[in-house]
Structures are given as structure tokens and as C-alpha cells.
Backbone:
């Protein structure tokens, strides 16, 4: 039960949503964060602006990747062959979200991103994929790297009246991916995550690598491991060096009830190595299949 009165509107366009927010209020996406907060009286907005009728769902293939609507659910990610082909990291992330099947058809990618919670799966995965956020507000449209969406723990960079409408992702077809999540149990929030992409050339030399740590700091932490892996055929020593870079990058770890920051800093290197190893093996498997 929500212990206060509020207005509810569900505009049938993005422009209508922006106009409705001009009178104040809070955006409602999947509701898996907003409604529990309102039930506990942690949030008391005078108005809810529901995005479900604004046409922001689904996944669309583009010439160079994917367009993912802000209201796209995890179930939609899992059902999309375009995601499997062009953004398999997102599929792997969606398969193991906290809450499992109970949330897959309700919770949204955009809602999780805007909530900007350090322990959520979505933020680090989107950053690792090189996603670009699309936003519409009173002053028009803007696009920016999704990393810039995460201003601080539980705070996005959206301006008053702005609505996140979706994401553009470059294709990761042909790259290998790895996603590792450390948590206490099946229903626990992650203590730390590592998302990785590795792209090899025909000779097995690493040409691109992306590594992003989640939950270890207040916002997703990209780690530059190119010096350890790009331009070589990566082996154990290169992976070990990349993991050391990841551990050294955590200089302001996140504390919460799940784990102290010191523990998160300590596990950053091991989970980074696991994610990079998974991504490298997947990239080699893809290369073998391509040339078979």
C-alpha cells in the first residue's frame, strides 16, 4: 500500500511525457524500484508519469548495431536474436539478473540505468558495450556516452524534465564476451561484477578490449587494460597483468550492507581476470567457427 495520494498520468508519446514532467513528478518505468520506495514512504512524488504507452520498448537492429528502447524488458533482451548476435553480453547479463524470472517481464533496462544503483547489473554492462544514451527533454534531444548517465550512487545525470528514451549500441558481433558476478546467494545483489569484451584478428592478436567493473565503486568503473592485451596474442601473463590493472584502478570502493569497500577492492582483480578469460576464450571459439 502506498501511504500518500498522487496523480497518475500515462502519456502516449515522449513529448507528452516530457510535458507531464514539466509539472513535476517522477517517471515510472517497470516500477520495480519506484513502487517499493513509495510503499515504504522513502519517495513521495506528487505525480507519476508512466512511460509504458510512449512507445519506448523493444530492440531494433541498425546498420551498425542495435537500438534498445528505455522500456525494453529483460525478457525482450532474451527473446531477441539481434541481441544474441550483436550484443551477447547484454543477453548474458539479462539471464542472471537479481530477481530472476519474477522481474524479467516487468523490470526495464532504462529504469535500472536511471536508478544508477551501484549494485545493479545493467550500468556496467551498458558501459562495457559502448552504449550511447538517448534523452529527450524540454530543450530537445541529446545523446552522450552512457557512462556519463551515472553521476553518483543512486543519481543519474538527467536534467529536470528529461526522459531517457533508449540506447544505441555498436555491434559486438565476432567479439568474445565475459560477465562475472560475485554475490552471496541466488537472490542477493552483486557485491562486484566484471563485464568484458575482447576482439581478435585472424591471427589471434587482440585488437580491442573493454573491461568495466560494477558495484565496486559508486559508478561503473572502466579499466584501461589495452597496455596488457592489445597487440599481442594474450596468454596467462597478459591476463594477470590486466587483472592487476583492474585491482589498482579501484581507489574509492563502494561500501554498503553487503560488503565493505575493502572487500570489493580485494575481489576486483580476480573477477576481472575471470571475465577477461571468458571473453578471450569466447573470442577464440568464434574465430575457429568463422574459419571452420
Residues:
Amino acid at each position: 500500500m502506498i501511504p500518500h495520494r498522487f496523480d497518475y498520468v500515462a502519456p502516449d508519446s515522449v513529448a507528452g511525457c516530457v510535458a507531464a514532467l514539466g509539472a513535476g513528478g517522477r517517471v515510472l518505468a517497470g516500477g520495480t524500484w519506484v513502487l517499493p520506495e513509495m510503499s515504504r514512504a522513502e519517495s513521495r512524488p506528487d505525480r507519476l508519469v508512466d512511460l509504458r504507452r510512449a512507445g519506448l520498448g523493444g530492440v531494433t537492429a541498425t546498420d551498425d548495431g542495435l537500438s534498445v528502447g528505455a522500456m525494453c524488458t529483460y525478457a525482450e533482451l532474451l527473446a531477441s536474436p539481434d541481441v544474441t548476435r550483436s550484443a551477447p553480453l547484454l543477453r548474458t547479463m539479462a539471464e542472471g539478473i537479481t530477481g530472476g524470472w519474477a522481474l524479467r517481464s516487468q523490470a526495464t533496462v532504462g529504469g535500472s540505468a536511471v536508478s544508477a544503483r551501484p549494485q545493479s547489473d545493467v550500468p556496467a554492462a551498458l558501459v562495457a558495450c559502448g552504449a550511447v544514451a538517448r534523452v529527450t527533454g524540454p530543450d530537445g534531444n541529446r545523446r552522450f556516452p552512457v557512462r556519463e548517465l551515472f553521476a553518483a550512487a543512486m543519481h543519474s545525470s538527467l536534467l529536470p524534465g528529461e526522459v531517457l528514451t533508449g540506447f544505441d549500441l555498436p555491434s559486438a558481433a565476432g567479439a568474445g564476451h565475459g560477465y562475472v558476478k560475485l554475490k552471496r546467494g541466488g537472490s542477493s545483489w552483486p557485491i562486484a561484477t566484471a563485464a568484458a569484451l575482447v576482439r581478435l584478428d585472424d591471427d589471434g592478436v587482440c585488437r580491442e578490449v573493454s573491461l568495466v567493473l560494477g558495484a565496486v565503486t559508486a559508478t561503473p568503473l572502466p579499466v584501461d587494460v589495452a597496455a596488457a592485451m592489445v597487440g599481442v596474442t594474450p596468454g596467462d601473463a597478459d591476463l594477470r597483468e590486466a587483472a592487476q590493472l583492474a585491482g589498482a584502478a579501484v581507489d574509492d570502493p563502494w561500501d554498503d550492507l553487503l560488503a565493505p569497500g575493502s572487500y570489493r577492492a580485494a575481489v576486483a582483480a580476480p573477477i576481472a581476470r575471470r571475465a577477461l578469460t571468458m571473453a578471450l576464450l569466447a573470442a577464440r571459439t568464434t574465430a575457429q567457427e568463422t574459419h571452420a
